[in-house]
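Bug #77: duplicate submission created two jobs. Keeping one. Sequence:
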Amino acid sequence: MLVLEDGSRYEGRAFGALEPILSSERKGEVVFATGMTGYQEICTDPSYRGQMVALTYPLIGNYGVNPEDVESRRPWLSALIVRECCEEFHHWRGRESLSDYLARAGIPGLQGIDTRALTRRLRASGTLRGVLRAYQPGQKPDIPRLGAAARSVKTVSDLDVVEEVSLDAIRPWNAASSPTIQPLNLASASSLSHSSARGRVVLIDTGYKEQIARCLNDCGLETILAPAHIAINELLALQPDGVLLANGPGDPETVAALIDVCRALLATGMPLMGICLGHQILGLAAGGRTSRLPFGHHGANHPVREARTGRVTITSQNHNFQVDAASLPPESGFYVSHINLSDGSVEGLAHEKLPVFSVQYHPEASPGPHDNRYLFERFASLITERKLVGAA
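Kept job's structure:
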């Protein structure tokens, strides 16, 4: 049974890991995601840390789970809520069922509920906190107690979710590696010869997705992963040609130290790209403010328009906060580069003079359309241009 803070409840059948919800409750904010496919990428997206995700597409799990499409070292969501979880998968890349995969990771699931009704409630009320509890047949759930527990759940703004999902040390990335590879000490990292003619990028891990690193690799860029708590002197000691601020969970205002690092990077004139949470951090470093959306953007079908060209693309999104357009100081040099066509929220920032830009959506997708992967090439070109200017 899922019980929300407003007293509503949804009763169904459990799948995935049962022990966490038999012995206690699983808690979190409840959000909905509208993608028809990509449940494996959603489960392993660190941006869902502290949240229970309801998928609006009714049949989930029919193509199984495979080791190639994971976006992080583990699933991060608190629970998965679906209309029906397919018990038997069929796909040539599938290796195990979604239920078995979640069970191994300790993630519970709820199926057999009206996910359309749940989605409509979340759209009307905004994101709601909830608790998930399993009961044996014949047991009677304590609804008032569960409702009270739901109202006491901490929001992601009250949790240090970025520190939970971030790597704890500087690590190299390559196409055959994983986040479990051996860390580098600062001395050895800074003395590495640049293995790419296009340059070295430090990817600050606030909850990065593997596809971001793959896209950088496809552009011929060497990537070094750095933890979210990296200091500016440690970052610059890595001799980067550019820095990418990754996606991640929670409220951007909770990572104040990284906002200061971003502000220091802006002063260097180094090429800088932000994605999702990284975009919000850049907005705060520029002097702007952020606010929470009523129920966030979670899906792979959001239309976004580039302000200066009028070009419209379909984007993949997963965020709860936004940069407030009117809060950007005119003297910052930043302008709103992209607009969400559904609600008018800010979807991108760019600087008039510096090689700096950011997008609220996910250009790497996974899941979602590939319309915006050209942005990684744009970032690589900014790095190349700055290196040529420096050489001259």
